[in-house]
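Help! Submission page says 'invalid entity' but I think these are all valid:
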Amino acid sequence: MSIPSSDVLLEVRELDVRFATPDGVVHAVDRLSFSLRRGETLGLVGESGSGKSVTNLALMGLIRGAQISGEALFEGRDLLSLPADELREIRGKEIAMIFQDPFACLHPMYRVGDQIVEAIRVHSDVSKKQAEQRVIELLGAVGIPRPKERIRDYPHQFSGGMRQRAMIAMALVNNPDILIADEPTTALDVTVQAQILELIDRVKTEFDIGVILITHDLGVVADVAQTVMVMYAGRGMEVGRKDDVFAQPLHPYTWGLLESIPRVDQKVSGLRPIQGSPPSLIFVPPGCPFHPRCLHRFSPCDKERPEFRDRGGGHAEACHLSADDKKRLWAERQSRFLEAAV
Amino acid sequence: MAAYIVRRVLWAIVVVFVVTMLTFFIFYVLPPGDPARRFAGKAPTEETIAAVREQFGLDKPWYEQYGLFVKNLVTGDEYGWPGLGFSYDTRVPVRDELLNRLPRTLFLVFGAAILWAIMGITIGVISAIRKGGVLDRAAMGFALFGVSAPVFWLGLLVLFLFADTGGGPEQLQVLPGTGYVPFEESPKEWFLHLILPCTILSLLYAAFYARMTRGSLIETMSEDYIRTARAKGLSERDVIVKHGLRASLTPVVTMFAMDVALLIGGAVITETVFNWQGVGSWVLTATFNSNLPVVVAVVLLGAVFVVLFNLLADIAYAWLDPRVRYQ
């Protein structure tokens, strides 16, 4: 399956983000590259503090006091070097964002409808009436009942799921090309989570946009993403089509993540967590940042940084192990995992 | 909302009565001196004192006196409505003197309030936006000065520097000295006389409000909905003014109403330094002289203003924050 390159919406190359803090320099994103196509959902997966959110805030120019380098090409323009007011034109119009906690993200003192109307009128010169009409349409489209009345409500009169729907409506209101969803379901009930994911998937198709879905939950990615990027300590560890990554994961960190998901379809002996915890981004381990927690580390791992290598079909990873070793080790881990359950 | 306001007003009346009753009670349990003895003049005979006491009703138990006070207050006395008796010091009806002094204090306090709200909020917003910068440090330095400089010292200093009665450089002496000129007499003089006392009274509060606004705005600007506002593509100015200030000024408004109300009977030092002849300096003298009718009248006035402004603050709060409105 080859996708024409003209469909590439966003091409991020060697994105690097550092913050100076009193304790030292935090290297939040380290030479990260990825691309997003129209009609595709890219899942950015990783533990807390792996640089997922920072990556996207950096693209949107919403980080202050950071040192950012690299390129992020969107419609021929580099987002990272655009002047602030040009980037502001893109924000909310061509690239929209939704966030984790939909209650905290809506202004508690303004009506939901007015907040969305504002999002329209920042970017286009329409009357309040027209904008309101559009808001009612969209709220209906994202599944809010009686939108004509609900636009007069305040956020606290909405349930968590409805607030996230309203946020999605706000994001879509200017027909963006890209929707960045930063942990959009983490703060919601499980049943509502599924509805919101379904909604994101539906609007992706209906609006023909690209979605960057940030999550720590591989289950969420499995549901809606076409492409997966696994991040660790601000770096990309493995990237590929979702089916490839789930069927034949290539990086020991991905293996660990997959083994730590609760599964109902396989009889396994409880969960297998990854030992240890993610490194501080001030003192990132040398070589591969995952090596202190890796079960398969060998001589070069703590010295040389593994470069990203394409293993075919756009499935790439950064690990020193050879392809044969990976195949063998993953097979072994899986059989041991299943055996232990018997 | 209407039922809420009615309930609050009824409650306010109860509060006002309790406060005045307490004032009466304290005056009789802890008498700082016998009002009758003072009133009776130099070297009075016991008979004179007893006569005065009887005439003022001071020989009755405190609750009877209070009952009479309430009756006069509600129905009026020989000087008019509301009946507040007469001042033991000047023998002038309290009501007349109050009507003479209250406008002075109201102009002083409201003038100062406008000044400190403008100064405090502006300085607070600028320092919050430029947090850690030169402007922020300068503003917070000013705030520290405003909070720590004593009002009587500052008052005397500005009188020395800027008043035509002072001893400072002549080029600076552009303002009149102490005292008050009624608006009806000369609007220009009225205004000029207000400048120094209002400024001095406002400084302390301006400093305090600058710190409060700064803290509140800095906290608000780290909220998630501010990030949403930025993600919408709003200009930074709109993000701060429409989204940041709206949320961070709500607690400031509540504070503002209370501070203004408390000053109606409490701008004592400023009124004294500027020889203002307002309510604050009046009640101060009255307290020293056991001038009960004046003290009770001012306590009553203070209680009414506090309760009224508290109610206004609550209504404003509900209007500003819909989460309160719908509870």
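Support: the input was valid. A stray whitespace character was the problem, and the output above is from the cleaned input. DSSP finds twelve helices and twelve strands in chain A.
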